[in-house]
């Protein structure tokens, strides 16, 4: 798949996800200021790569794009909630996200906390909606998968914060990153498998792919933090070093990090072997994770 085709596919599905989320949030019976903060934290930005993972994993089993859209949107709501909270003064204290003021900066920290809470809650309201999937057993399985992914993401955030005051070793860094960043990416692949009612082996290989994709995404992110500008990233560059974050780049250097990145991509591609050409978009996605510039 060419880079132009991949870029177009990412843009197209991002717009579909954006439209869905905008409609969903517009229908909320909630205070205007809260909905405004939720919209600020979840709309008008982001590549929506996690929903695309859901869509492409489900597509391996013949699930139509419109049948996986709501599930991917629920995953994206959890991701957006995590960013809103991650940017708070008591967390990373970031003032810019996706090229615009973060939610706490545009509103205030208290409302940002509540907006993040509401985005998280809405994700599970969406997954439990019969319109998302008619089979209650499938909906329950999706809820369980996203609950685990969200909890592990929080666990990873705790380890990340602890790593600011006591440097983590390599094993601990990999564990932290597999939770903080990798959990939701892995969950995206798993939710696609659930929608497609994959068998045990197929689901296991998609999970393995998701783990590798999550590692590739985070290592690339760590590299970009020291090689890209804030304007390029749409968020504050160099904050890992400024906040004394424990990363593979800080521990072993950029060259070693790139070797690990290449190994993660290779492992992810290997996990997709049984799916043949139907998995070409997933192959392109993990390569994109490794080579992206923002």
Automatic annotation (TrEMBL):
This protein's GO CC annotations: cytoplasm
InterPro entries: Isoprenoid_synthase_dom_sf, Polyprenyl_synt, Polyprenyl_synt_CS, Prenyl_diphosphate_synthase
Pfam families per record: polyprenyl_synt
Source superkingdom: Bacteria
UniProt keyword annotations, A-Z: Isoprene biosynthesis, Magnesium, Metal-binding, Transferase
GO biological process: terpenoid biosynthetic process
Cofactor(s) the protein needs: Mg(2+)
A GO term, aspect molecular function: metal ion binding
PANTHER family: FARNESYL DIPHOSPHATE SYNTHASE
Protein family (similarity comment): Belongs to the FPP/GGPP synthase family.
Name the UniProt record assigns to this protein: Probable farnesyl diphosphate synthase
Organism name: Pelagibacterium lentulum
């Amino acid at each position: 798949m060419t880079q132009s085709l991949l870029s177009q596919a990412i843009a197209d599905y991002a717009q579909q996800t954006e439209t869905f989320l905008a409609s969903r949030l517009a229908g909320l019976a909630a205070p205007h200021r809260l909905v405004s903060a939720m919209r600020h934290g979840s709309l008008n930005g982001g590549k929506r790569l996690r929903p695309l993972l859901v869509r492409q994993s489900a597509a391996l089993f013949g699930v139509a794009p419109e049948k996986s859209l709501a599930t991917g949107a629920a995953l994206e709501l959890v991701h957006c909630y995590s960013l809103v909270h991650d940017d708070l003064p008591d967390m990373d204290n970031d003032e810019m996200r996706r090229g615009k003021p973060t939610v706490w900066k545009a509103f205030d920290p208290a409302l940002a906390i509540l907006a993040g809470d509401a985005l998280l809650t809405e994700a599970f309201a969406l997954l439990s909606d019969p319109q998302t999937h008619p089979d209650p057993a499938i909906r329950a399985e999706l809820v369980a998968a996203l609950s685990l992914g969200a909890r592990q993401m929080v666990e990873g955030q705790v380890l990340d914060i602890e790593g600011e005051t006591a440097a983590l070793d390599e094993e601990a860094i990999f564990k932290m990153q597999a939770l903080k960043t990798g959990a939701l990416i892995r969950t995206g692949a798993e939710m696609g498998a659930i929608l497609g009612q994959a068998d045990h082996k197929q689901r296991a290989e998609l999970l393995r792919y998701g783990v590798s994709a999550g590692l590739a995404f985070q290592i690339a992110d760590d590299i970009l933090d020291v090689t890209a500008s804030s304007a390029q990233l749409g968020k504050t560059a160099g904050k890992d070093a400024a906040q004394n974050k424990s990363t593979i780049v800080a521990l072993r250097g950029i060259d070693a990090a790139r070797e690990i990145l290449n190994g993660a991509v290779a492992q992810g591609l290997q996990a997709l072997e049984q799916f043949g050409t139907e998995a070409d978009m997933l192959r392109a996605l993990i390569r994109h994770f490794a080579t992206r510039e923002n």
